[in-house]
Specification:
Number of domains: 2
Radius of gyration: 16 Å
Strand content: 25-35%
Order of helices and strands: HHEEEEEEEE
Distance between the termini: 38 Å
Largest sheet: 8 strands, antiparallel
Helix content: 10-25%
Shape: globular
Structural class: mainly beta
Length: 173
């Protein structure tokens, strides 16, 4: 029997392998054997309170293709990873919440430009921040995509051993 996370990962791999809206090119899809993931890490699943910013300024974040996208700085989430306190800025978009981050494993085990999370609001100021659902942006697979780059304030000195690992296949344009 598979866990909910394992089912989610199997569905995602099937989407990447067969769906016409996959970020992979047809050649990549033919060779695709599945994404690489860290083992499930329950300690990296948080129900935490966001400290909202008094002023929710709109900022422009550069993308991988040199464009910019506007995001609203919503608040900070603070938690501990392996006994180390960390904090990240949470952004609001018209489609929900966005949490880009780079961890200490960038360049080796995780995508160098960072991974993303879509935190789930739980009511009040509480959010579910589950790093097991951390994913690579589409530009990690295909240079035709324009992806927001992780702001400096969301670059962590700790390792987040959860979610997707760095894509090991060839990135195509």
């Amino acid at each position: 029997m598979t866990t909910e996370l394992e089912d989610f990962r199997l569905d995602k791999d099937a989407f990447f392998k067969t769906h016409p809206q996959s970020p992979l090119t047809p050649a990549q899809q033919r060779a695709f054997k599945g994404l690489s993931y860290f083992p499930e890490a329950p300690a990296l699943r948080f129900e935490i309170e966001v400290e909202p910013f008094a002023e929710r300024e709109t900022v422009e974040i550069q993308t991988s293709t040199g464009d910019v996208r506007a995001y609203q700085k919503y608040g900070r989430v603070a938690f501990e990873v392996d006994g180390h306190p960390v904090a990240l800025t949470l952004y609001a978009t018209p489609h929900g919440f966005f949490l880009p981050f780079v961890d200490a494993l960038a360049q080796t085990e995780t995508y160098p430009a960072g991974r993303y999370l879509d935190p789930e609001p739980l009511g009040g100021k509480r959010f579910l921040v589950d790093f097991n659902l951390a994913y690579n942006p589409y530009c990690a697979y295909n240079d035709q995509y324009s992806c927001p780059l992780t702001p400096f304030e969301n670059r962590l000195k700790v390792a987040i051993r959860a979610g997707e690992k760095r894509f090991t296949g060839a990135v195509h344009a």
